[in-house]
Design goal:
- This protein is an alpha/beta fold and 129 residues long.
- The protein has five helices and six strands; from the N terminus they run H-E-E-H-E-H-H-E-H-E-E.
- The longest helix is centred in the middle third of the chain and has 11 residues.
- The chain is globular.
Length: 129
């Protein structure tokens, strides 16, 4: 049995396969899934697992160069926005509509059970050297 790291084999493989600038997304349970993008569905119930639970676990195993948030998060989910802006990761914002278009080009979307608005982030992989 895997001794360290992420137990979910799909997420573990996804992170192992990332190269510099490759992108993944962590999403709430309401985000529409684009055709052709791998979905790793963790949603068990509303709020379970939470966006932040998944984000922090992924962050501890991924070198992140930058993240992209929906600009609407600033006003519609201010508590989450305040937590994410305190992370030591560069970030940009774009409209939720643009974020949904952007999601069509990520390697995979990890769907959480989060049931609060705009709890979505695109993470760009960094390089370790």
């Amino acid at each position: 049995m895997y001794k360290t790291g992420i137990l979910n084999s799909d997420i573990s493989k996804l992170l192992s396969d990332l190269g510099h600038t490759d992108e993944i997304m962590i999403a709430d349970c309401g985000l529409p899934m684009p055709n052709g993008v791998k979905k790793i569905d963790l949603a068990l119930d509303f709020g379970k697992p939470s966006f932040l639970d998944v984000f922090h676990i992924v962050k501890s195993h991924m070198a992140i160069e930058k993240m992209t948030l929906a600009s609407e998060m600033k006003t519609e989910n201010e508590s989450l926005y305040n937590v994410l802006k305190e992370e030591e990761i560069k970030f940009t914002t774009e409209s939720h509509e643009l974020l949904k278009q952007h999601s069509k080009h990520v390697k995979a979307i990890i769907r959480t059970g989060e049931a609060k608005p705009y709890a979505n982030v695109i993470l760009a992989s960094d390089v370790l050297f």
